[in-house]
Design brief:
Blueprint: H1 4-17, E1 25-28, E2 34-36, H2 39-46, E3 51-57, E4 60-65, E5 70-74, E6 79-84, E7 94-101, E8 104-110, E9 116-120, H3 122-129, H4 145-150, H5 157-162, H6 172-181, H7 195-214, E10 255-259, E11 262-266
Parallel strand pairs: 2-9
Antiparallel strand pairs: 1-7, 3-4, 4-5, 5-9, 6-8, 7-8, 10-11
Helix pairs in contact: 1-7, 6-7
The structure holds zinc ion.
Zinc ion binds next to loops.
Amino acid sequence: MPELPEVETIKEDLRGLVVGSKIERAEILDPSLVEQPSAEEFVRRLAGASITGARRRAKHLILELDSGDSLVFQLKIGGELLLVPPVEEPETALMLVLHLGEQRRLFLRDETGFTRARLLDAGELKERLSTLGPEPLGEGFEAGYLPRKVGSRRAQIKPLLLDQKVVSGIGNIYVDEILYDARLHPRRKANTLSEGEWEALYGAIRSSLTAGVEHRGTTVRLYRDVLNRPGGHQNYLRVFEKHGRPCPRCGGEIVREKVGGRPSHFCPACQAEDGSGEDGQLELR
Ligand SMILES: [Zn+2]
């Protein structure tokens, strides 16, 4: 599932490969793709528009157009954007084709069919993005933000980190890696974290997502970049889907349990549920 590093990689690819191109024609192959406006209006407003920019906000991929509209994709679980050529034309699970001229086409395909697209004017875009929490690799995200925002909550830390209104762009792969790095059990209540633990969590969020971007994303199953290449960060995962295997830090067994309805991978020895981790961060309560 594309999270911040994967959407960031796709955005950078699109900046280099399709910004400056004109959309001659848009062809919808799966009408469930378009959430807003109607499919007819979506196609009509895209025709003839030039792509002037590509950006990312949280897990939203945004293509800016010279018409003033923004084409916004949520790639959800299995969404892929593929530029043809240079890659081979995909044949299955197609949802949208943007014809860019000179035989170049941008294909949106998704085996899971959950990808959604919207064509929004400036006001609608602002409204759409208004509830999102800060970008964890942006300047507005400093060490004091999370304890200030959620430090008094009795909610579990993992679901809080997945809440896009709290902090944006983190999904189920990176959150497990982040909590492992910070030595926090996914069920720890936010109001039980010590100052040192909040600092460790902040550092882990920044370093894990930065590494994911540097490695051009994580391909556990579905993710591909615009040139149909897998990412590289799956080679650096320590706990995600490593259940039954030894913890790289202590040699204990990584386990998988549901937390907040999501499969969660962690080391029960390094990430003690009562916060009594072996690194001396025992908190008196
Ligand atoms: Zn361990």
